[in-house]
Amino acid sequence: MARIKIDPDQWMTAAIQKAFVDKSDERYDPGWHHPSSLVHPCLANQQFNFIGATKERRPFILAYTSTVGTFIHETIQDLIRDHPLIDEMEDSCNIPEFRVRGRLDIIGRDPDGEPTIVDIKTVESIPSLPRPKDILQVLWYMKMKNVERGAILYVRRSSGLTKRYKFRWKDWEKEWEKNKDLSQQIIQDTLKGIQSPKTPESRAYCVKDCPFFKQCEAYNAGDKSDWTPLIENTIRILQNDSTD
After folding, report:
1. What whole-number distance in Å separates Cα of residue 79 and Cα of residue 25?
2. I need a labelling partner for 117 at 20 to 30 A (CA). Which of 25, 108, 132, 226 fits?
């Protein structure tokens, strides 16, 4: 294989890009769903997250935007942490019976006094309406904290422009129920040792956007050498937790 030549004058650029790609704060939490992974359109992807599979290295642009997003996210929290209408930040919550846990961004109170769970999303452009997948993620936090109002705070990365959308549990409860049922299907598939259905938006979506693409391809080609240890470990976790 031919070696790729790097312009010696670009050593710093190459080093910076490598550092962004190497930097990772991915969570590996076998036996537990996280709200952020439950909104992915493919159940097989959700299951790989559930069994704690290692994600493929992200390309530089995704690693960079993720780092920028984390910086904006943490900066906003620091700026408003002491505001009188902010109650909690980065609060851990869970629903053990559904095997779902996570850490929400903000619990605050609007001027009417009603508690509101807010999730911060950094974006290239602010959507004209809140994205359903973002609402679904917050619904899990609302369920865990028994809160009736949720909100998405979109922040445009390039300009800092922000827009906040509110929604209520009663208007989205049916969508949450569907998502909950699918999350439980994944658990049952895992206990049976089988892969959950592949339900991506398209084959192109798999290739471009799934960090488990190679592992999924290997499984479907009959190679379960990486899959089996993860499944067996997750089954042990589920069985042991059920007897605690």
Report:
1. 23
2. 25
* Residues 122 and 155: beta-carbon distance below 8 Å: yes
Residue segments in the chain with a per-residue pLDDT below the cut of 70: 1-6, 21-27, 243-244
Distance between CA atoms of residues 88 and 67, nearest Å: 23
Q: What is the pLDDT of residues 197-216, one digit of tens each?
A: 999 888 888 888 888 999 99
Output the CA angle 152-154-160, nearest 5 degrees.
150
Distance CA 209, CA 235 (A): 27
Residues 180 and 95: their CA atoms lie apart, in Å, by 11
Helix (H), strand (E) at residue 61? helix 60-80
Nearest to 103 by CA among 75, 132, 129, 77: 77
Alpha carbon distance 182, 187 (integer Å): 9
- What is the Cα–Cα distance from 6 to 79, expressed in whole angstroms? 41
- Helices 169-192 & 227-243 angle (0-180, nearest 10): 110
How far is residue 57's CA from residue 185's CA, in Å, rounded to a whole number?
A: 28
DSSP-based three-state secondary structure for 148? coil
Strands of the sheet containing 149-156, edge to edge, are 86-95, 100-109, 115-123, 149-156, 162-168
What gap in Å lies between CA 37 and CA 186, rounded to an integer?
A: 12
Q: Which residue has the tokens 């049916």?
A: 174
CA distance 243 to 236: 11
> Crossing angle, helix 11-22 and helix 60-80, to 10 degrees?
70
Q: Which pLDDT belongs to residue 2?
A: 43
